[in-house]
């Protein structure tokens, strides 16, 4: 059996200190929360649909992800709080759209990563 556990407590103290220093200034909870939001399959499906369709009504998004309007609204609210999507109302309908175009880069990065890993 291959044992990949270090038997020494610290070899490169300078590297460890630099990494710890950079980590102290890194907003881990926010970044982790962002990725946690996108780790949900329904929210990822919503983002994917909005990337390709520019804007969609909540009821249409619910149909796309095969969920209730209430569940879909909950997911959209989470995405809206993060600044990923935004909405506008047209009568009784609420339309959602991608607010931050950088999400397109993230989606593309995820697809490229998947292709490289599975290649």
Task: Kindly describe this structure.
The chain has 6 helices and 3 strands; from the N terminus they run αααβααββα. With 119 residues, it is an alpha+beta fold. The protein has a single domain (13-118), classed as Arc Repressor Mutant, subunit A (Orthogonal Bundle). Strand 2 (85-90) and strand 3 form a beta hairpin. Helix 4 packs across helix 5. The model has no long low-confidence stretch (mean pLDDT 87).
Q: What are its keywords?
A:
DNA binding; transcription regulation; 13% strand; alpha+beta; 3-stranded antiparallel beta sheet; Metal_resp_trans_reg; 119 residues; Arc Repressor Mutant, subunit A; transcription
In short:
The protein is α+β, with helices and mostly antiparallel strands and 119 residues long. It has 6 helices and 3 strands; from the N terminus they run αααβααββα.
């Amino acid at each position: 059996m291959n044992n990949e556990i270090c038997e020494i407590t610290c070899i490169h103290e300078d590297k460890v200190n630099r990494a710890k220093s950079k980590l102290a200034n890194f907003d881990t909870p926010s970044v982790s929360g962002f990725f946690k939001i996108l780790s949900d399959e329904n929210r990822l499906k919503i983002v994917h649909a909005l990337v390709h369709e520019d804007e969609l009504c909540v009821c249409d998004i619910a149909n796309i992800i095969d969920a209730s309007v209430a569940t879909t609204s909950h997911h959209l609210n989470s995405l809206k709080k993060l600044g990923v999507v935004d909405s506008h109302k047209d009568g009784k309908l609420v339309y959602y759209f991608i607010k931050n175009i950088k999400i397109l880069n993230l989606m593309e990065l995820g697809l490229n990563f998947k292709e490289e890993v599975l290649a």
